[in-house]
Structure formats: structure tokens, C-alpha cells
Amino acid sequence: MSTQTAPPAAAAAAASLTTAPASGKARRPRRPRQFTSKAVVNAILIVFALYTLMPLTWLVIASTKNYRDLFATNPFSLGDFNFLNNLSELFAYNDGIYLRWLGNSVLYTVIGSLLSTIISVACGYAFDKYEFRGKDTLFGFVLIGLLVPSTVTALPLYLLASEVGMVNTYWAVLIPSLVNPFGVYLARVFSEGYVPGEVLEASRMDGAGELRTFVSVSLPMLAPGFMTIFLFSFTASWNNFYSALMMLNDEELYPANLGLYALMKSVYQHPELYPLVIIGSLVAVVPLIIAFLSLQRFWRSGLTAGAVK
Amino acid sequence: MAASSVKSPAPPSGSAAKAEPAKPLKPVKPAAAKSARRNQRGAAALFMIPFFVLFAVATIAPIVYAGYMSLYTEKSSGLGFGGTERSFTGLGNFAEALGDPAFQRSFGHIAVYCLIYIPVMIGAALALALLVDSALARAKRFFQIAYYMPHAVPGLVASMVWLYLYTPGISPIVDVIENLGLGWNFFGQDEALYSIINVSAWQWIGYNMIIFYAGLQAIPRETLEAATVDGAGAMRTALQVKIPMIRSTVVLTLLFTCVGAIQLFDAPKLVQLRATELGVDWSPTMYIYNVAFDGHDYGLAAAASLLLALIAGVLSFVVTKIGNRWKES
């Protein structure tokens, strides 16, 4: 009865995606007259799911087509299966520049976010656990930093970077991404909540230095907060297109999204590159979706932390 | 300073009874306490210096430098290459930016965008959250994941995929519209705005729906049961109990959306590649990019950036203030 309104595909997907039962709420018995409204509610939900999933579905189907089939066949039907062919062309294009772009993306997003998170957590933790003169003033700077979105400092950063000759380097993209005032703010909140002062006293009592206490006592207790801040920073840097577009001219330094943009612009002169742009987009998105599905728990806590802020 | 003695190694008296025998040895000695305090101050500095150095280099310095740049203008001396000279204009660049119809128009575009996008996005996110929260919904977990999925896609890639979905010849949507005999050009002068709004809606409805849903889940069950006992139907409970209870979350989302909207770049930049009537300076960020990289007028671009930063700062300040007031109450 209950699954009748959901199509088999949705039900199967839900079954494979959920390890836990659908929701924590107890199910109350329902009266049969609600059957139609149940159908309507689930129909609306399915229609919207089609909207959110359709572009990605199209991307998967389009990535199996060669240039001729892209335009000749129905967008949602399969042509000749050229997926692997497209993939090898993508990685062969311009001496394998796409692999380099992916590597750069990993550098900018994974390494950058990891460093940024360590820096933010250490700073937020110090704001919470230590007392010193001028602490409030200093925290005021963090709050001001929080008010200025990175998009609006992108051009000033470019101007400064070009003055000191750092435009068109890895550093021009990496260094700005390390500054995350929101991460510091969150880390302070998490530190208040997760690391009780008594634990630090005990650790000091045992003769551990401050650094050791932070690394081996406090940091493990801050792990969920660390993950949340990491994901925030990760999202920000993989969405960062504006400042990378300003900072980088040398395509060897491009992250994947900037590379795809350059490729897409050249499609107007070289339409045969269409399949490469499409499969390139898919290759850029798939790892993110996998990461997102496997880290769901942390996403959710991050979302609510953001909302509470 | 006074507070630091509270935090220094003297253990809380409550734990004294179960403390190890070694305990009394350390904290009694004032010298040890003093050195511990010094250690702590050193540690605090160690933990904070990396952030503040980077903050100074990558946030404060650029803003200060842009402030300096915005006071000068570069005039080409007419001989072309390298023949520019820099002259002081005071606030001339700010006046020029504020008086530039293109800059003014770009804010007008964002205002119109917000007027349509915000009700659609918030309305849809709220409606979906209420539907998923209702007892009638099945496969709740699946729907949440499906709705949140677009947020995992980088903004630029999302815009690119939609750009293709708007392009006749490869787009299934355009096919459907043509088969229905309707004429809709996604890149038309009027339609392009909706094409941009759709990309934003696709990216954000699910994200905000999850936030609203988390708020709805936090409503005490007793409250909802009381409403049911009082004879309120599902629709009335939703409108008169559930929505008012997550009101603060909704308003905050609305404000965050405004802060995001004035930074809009990726979607209009890509849509504009085809919908050329939009103009290369459709949004404030596009205007700045265009002034700097096509016009090479860095002074004007710096002034426009600072004005945008000011607006963004004031907007975010309002958001934070309102957020804090709700958190306290």
C-alpha cells in the first residue's frame, strides 16, 4: 500500500541509498481517504526530483554520444556508445591537460581546504580556550572579515597580486582560499561545545604541553566540527570561479572548472569539442557527488550550523 | 588578565577529591602557575598567528590597496603601448562608478532578479519541506538526497549544463517545447533573465529545503499533536503552526539569499555568451570584471569593488544582527 505511489525506480533508489530507516518518526496509522492526497503529495515530490535529477541524467546520457549523435539523436535516447571513446579523447586532448586541471582542482580544493580548516580550527580554538589582552578586538576583525564576501575582494586581490607579481601562480588562488573567518567563528563555537575546560586541565596536569594537548586531546574532540568547517571551505573553493578567472592566464594552472570554461568557449570555433566539454563536466562532477553522498552526515550538521549562525 | 587566572591550572575544587596524589604539587607553586600562563599565551599566539597573517595578506591588504588604487586614474597618453600616466583623482572614480548608468543598471538587474527568484525559491523550498515533512510523503530520504544533489555540482558546471539544456539541437527541453508548438527562446532578451533564475533555483531550492526541513523536524511533536487535537487539518497545521515556528530560519535564508544575489556571476556570465543582449556588465560583479579586464580601468574597477564590498558588508551586518537577535530570544 504505502509504496504504491512512489515509482519503483524511486523506491529502489531510496532502498539502496538509505541504510537507516526512512526517518526517525514513528508512523501513525492513516485513514484510507487520505490515499488521494498521498498520491498528490508524492507526485509533486517526484516531479521536483525529476527537475533536480534531469540535468545530471542528461549529462550522463550525452557523455556516451559522439558529436554527430549529440545533434542527430533524441537527447534522451542512446546513440552509438562512445563513452569510453570520449573519455580517452578527453584525457588525450592537448597532451592530457585535463588530467592536469583535475590535479590542480585537487590541490586548490582538497589541500587548500585542509590547510584552511587546520588554520581556522587552531585559531577558533585559541579564541575559546585562552585569555589574553585584546581578544575581543581581535575577534572583531574576524567578524568584520565574515561580513565581506570573497567575491567582492577578488578584484582588490588581483590588483595587489599583480603589483607584487604573483598573478598567474598557484599561490594567487591558494593563499586567498586559506582565509576563512566563518571557519574561525564556527571553530570557536564548536570548541565551546565539544571541548570541556576540565579536559584541558587534566591534560596539562599530566604534563602535556599546549600544542600536544591541542593535537592529541582537543582536535579529536573537535572532529565533527573540523569536518563541517572542511566541507564549507571545500564547497567555497570548488565553487570559486570568479577569482580564478581573474588570477590565472596560464592554462597549466587552471582548475577543472576554469579549464572547462575555456574549452566551452572554444567550442564556438571548434564544434567537435562538444563531447569533450560534456564528458569533462561529468568527470568533474562525479567525484563531488560521491564525496557528497558518503559524507552526508557531516553535510547536514554543517547546514544546520550555517542556519543557526 | 583577571580572567586568565581563572583559566590557569588551579583545578576546579569539585574535582579535588578524586584528583591524583600528585595534584597538589604543581598548582601551589606560583612560579609554576606563572610559567604555565606564559606557555598558554605563547600557545594562543602560535595557534592564531597563521590565520591573522593570512587575513592581513589576503583580506586587509587588498582592500587597503584597492582603496589606494581607487584614488588614481590611468590615462593613456595617446601613444598606445605603455604610454599611460597615473594621476590623482580623489573620489573621482567613486563618482564615476556611482554615476555610470551601466553600474546602476547592474544593481537594477539584481533587484528584478531577486523580486522573481526569491519568492519562487523560498516558496518552493518551503512547500517541498512541508510536503516531505508531512505524514503522506514516502521515500523521504531519497527525496532529500535528490533535492540536495544539485548543490554538489560546482556553480560553473551547473551553469554550463543548463546552458546546453537551453541550446536548440542538443537540448531535450527545447525539443519538448518545440513539439508542444510553443515558442520560447531561452536566450531571448526577456527570457534570458528566467534562464539565469532557473539555474539559481536549481542550485538552491533543495539546499534551502533541507534547512527548512531540519527546522520542521525540530518542532516539538506535542505542539503538532495539540494542533491535531484542536481539530486543525494538515494544511492548517502547516500554515498556522509549522511555518510560524520556522519563521526565523526562513527570514535568515531570505537575507542570505540577498547577500548571495549581489555576488551573482557564473550563471549570467555563461548565459550571456549566447544571450548577448544581456550585456557583458549585467551584474555588478560582471561590471567590475568588464571594467578591469576589457576596459583596463583599474581605478574605476577598484572603486566599484569597494562600493560593492560596502553594500555586501552592510547587508551581511544586517543579516548577522537579525540572526543574533533571534538566537538570543
Automatic annotation (TrEMBL), chain A:
Gene Ontology cellular-component annotations: plasma membrane
SUPFAM superfamilies given in the database record: MetI-like
BP-aspect Gene Ontology terms: transmembrane transport
Topology versus the membrane: Multi-pass membrane protein
Protein keywords: Cell membrane, Membrane, Transmembrane, Transmembrane helix, Transport
Transmembrane segment boundaries: 39-61, 106-127, 139-158, 170-190, 211-238, 273-295
Localization annotation: Cell membrane
Short name of one Pfam family: BPD_transp_1
InterPro entries (UniProt xref): MetI-like (IPR000515), MetI-like_sf (IPR035906)
Annotated spans, Disordered: 14-33
The keyword Iron is assigned to this record: no
Residue ranges of domain ABC transmembrane type-1 in the record: 102-295
Superkingdom as given in the UniProt entry: Bacteria
Biased composition (Low complexity): 14-23
Similarity comment: family membership: Belongs to the binding-protein-dependent transport system permease family.
Name under which the protein is recorded: Carbohydrate ABC transporter permease
Organism per entry: Streptomyces mesophilus
